[in-house]
Amino acid sequence: MTENLFYFLTSLTLLCALMVVISKNPVHSVLFLIITFFTISGHYILLNAQFLAAVNIIVYAGAIMVLFLFVIMFLNLGKGAEKGVKTSTLSKIAGTVAGGLLFTVMIAALKDVEIAGYNPETYNSQIGMVENLGKVLFTEYLLPFELASVLFLVAMVGAVMLGKRETGEQHF
Questions:
Q1: CATH number of the domain enclosing 14
Q2: Which of 67, 113, 121, 165 has its CA 20 to 30 A from that of 86?
Q3: Do 71 and 130 belong together in one domain?
Q4: CB–CB of 2/46 below 8 Å?
Q5: Of the listed ranges 6-10, 31-35, 133-137, 138-142, the one predicted with least confidence
Q6: How much is the pTM?
Q7: Alpha helices in the chain (DSSP H)
Q8: Angstrom distance (rounded) from CA 30 to CA 16
Q9: Is 6 found in the same domain as 77?
C-alpha cells in the first residue's frame, strides 16, 4: 500500500514539475508548482516527517505561491506579453548545455550513493517529530539557525526600505 502511494506521488510530482516548466501560461505554471509542493509534502508524510510536511504546505504552497501569483498578476503577463518575447538560438543552446551539465553533476553526485536498508531493530518512529527536530536544530545547528534569522531580518528591513515612499516621490 505504502509503496503504491509512493509511486503515485512520485509520478504526480514529476508530471507536475514538468508541467511547471512546459506550461506557457504563468498562472498555470504556478498552479502546477502548488500541486508539486503538495505532493512533496505527501512524500514527507510517508517519511514520518509530519512537521516538515506542514511547514512545506504553509510556507511554500501558501505564502510563497500567493506572492508568485501576486507578482505575475501585477506584471500582467498575459497573452499579449508572449508575442513580444523571442528567444534566440544561442539562448536555447545555452539552456540545453546548462541543463545537461546540471544533469551530469547530479548523476556524478549520486553514483556512489548506497541506499540504506530498513532495519526494524534500530528503527526510531519519532525521528521526524518536532521535539527531535528542535533538539537537533538548537544543539548541532544553532549557528546556521541564528545566521538565517539575521538574514531574514535584513531582508525584511530591505523590503521595507525599498517599499517606503519618500515625500514628493511619484509611483506610476
A1: 1.20.120.1200
A2: 67
A3: no
A4: yes
A5: 133-137
A6: 0.59
A7: 2-22, 26-46, 50-55, 65-75, 79-84, 89-110, 130-139, 142-163
A8: 10
A9: yes
